[in-house]
Design brief:
The protein has a single domain, classed as Glycerol-3-phosphate (1)-acyltransferase (3-Layer(aba) Sandwich), CATH 3.40.1130.10. Helix content is 40%, strand content 15%. It has ten helices and seven strands. Strands 1-7-6-2-5-3-4 form a seven-stranded mixed beta sheet, with helices on both faces. Helix 8 crosses helix 10. The relative contact order is 0.18.
Length: 241
C-alpha cells in the first residue's frame, strides 16, 4: 500500500473508530519514547490492533493471522498497520525473521499472546476458519482471557526485547454496538515496561520449554493486572493481603 492510500484508509478508519468508540487511555507515561520493544495485550476482538495503531502515537508493526488477511475488509484495514502475516498452528519462520528485523531496526512489534480471538477458531486450518461466522472470528463472546500460546514468549526471548503490556476493555462489544448505532466506551490501560527475558545459557529441551511457559505466564499476568477480575479468565491474580 503506497503512502497516499495508507493516509486515506487511515483517515477513514480513524473516522469510523470515532463514530464507534469513546476511547479512554490511561498509563500513557509508560510508553517508551523509542524502540525496540514488544507490545502485548488481550485479544477480545479485531479492535485492539486498530486501537494500538490509532491511539498510542506510534507506528508499530503487527502480526496478522492468515485468516484475517484473507478477508477483504480486514485485510484492507490491517495493511494500514504494516502487518506481518503469520500462519497459526505452525512455526512460521519467515514471520519470525521479519519480526526480528523490525526489532533489530529499533521498531515496535505488536503480538497478542493468546494467539487468536476465538479459542476454537484459532486451532482451525485457515480454510475451516474462514467458514466460521465473521462475528465469531472478530469478537470473543466471553470477554475473558484464554490460555495463551508460547509464540510471544519465544519471540520475546529470541529478540530479548522489553515488553509493554496493555489491557483492553469492552472491545468485544464494539462491532455489535456499532451495528445498532451505539457508541461503545472502550478503555486502554497501559502498564509499565517489563523484561527483557534472556534464556539461560545451555537450556535445552524440557527445561527450555518450561522457561518459555514461565515467560508466557508472566506476560499474561501483566495483562491480567490491567483488567478487572471478571475479565481475567484463567489468569486470576493472588489477592493482596
Amino acid at each position: 500500500m503506497n503512502t497516499l492510500a495508507r493516509r486515506l484508509v487511515t483517515a477513514i478508519v480513524r473516522f469510523i473508530a470515532w463514530l464507534a468508540m469513546d476511547v479512554r487511555v490511561t498509563g500513557r507515561s509508560n510508553i517508551p519514547t523509542h524502540g525496540p520493544f514488544l507490545i502485548i495485550g488481550n485479544h477480545f476482538s479485531l479492535i485492539e490492533p486498530i486501537l494500538v495503531g490509532l491511539k498510542l502515537g506510534l507506528e508499530p508493526t503487527f502480526f496478522a493471522s492468515a485468516d484475517l488477511m484473507a478477508h477483504p475488509v480486514t485485510r484492507l484495514i490491517l495493511k494500514v498497520f504494516r502487518p506481518i502475516q503469520v500462519h497459526r498452528r505452525e512455526i512460521d519462520r519467515g514471520a519470525l525473521r521479519a519480526a526480528r528485523r523490525v526489532l533489530e531496526e529499533g521498531g515496535m512489534l505488536v503480538i497478542f499472546p493468546e494467539g487468536g480471538i476465538d479459542e476454537v477458531v484459532r486451532d482451525m486450518p485457515v480454510e475451516e476458519g474462514l467458514a466460521v461466522p465473521f462475528d465469531q472470528r472478530t469478537s470473543r463472546s466471553s470477554a475473558q482471557l484464554i490460555e495463551a500460546r508460547d509464540g510471544a514468549a519465544y519471540l520475546a526471548t529470541w529478540t530479548e526485547a522489553p515488553i509493554l503490556p496493555i489491557g483492553f476493555l469492552h472491545t468485544e462489544k464494539v462491532v455489535s454496538n456499532f451495528r445498532r448505532r451505539r457508541r461503545t466506551r472502550v478503555e486502554m490501560n497501559i502498564g509499565p515496561l517489563f523484561g527483557p527475558f534472556v534464556v539461560p545459557a545451555g537450556l535445552r529441551g524440557p527445561e527450555r520449554r518450561a522457561f518459555l511457559e514461565t515467560v508466557t505466564q508472566t506476560m499474561m499476568e501483566q495483562i491480567a493486572a490491567l483488567l478487572p477480575p471478571a475479565n481475567r479468565g484463567i489468569y486470576q491474580l493472588p489477592r493482596e493481603p
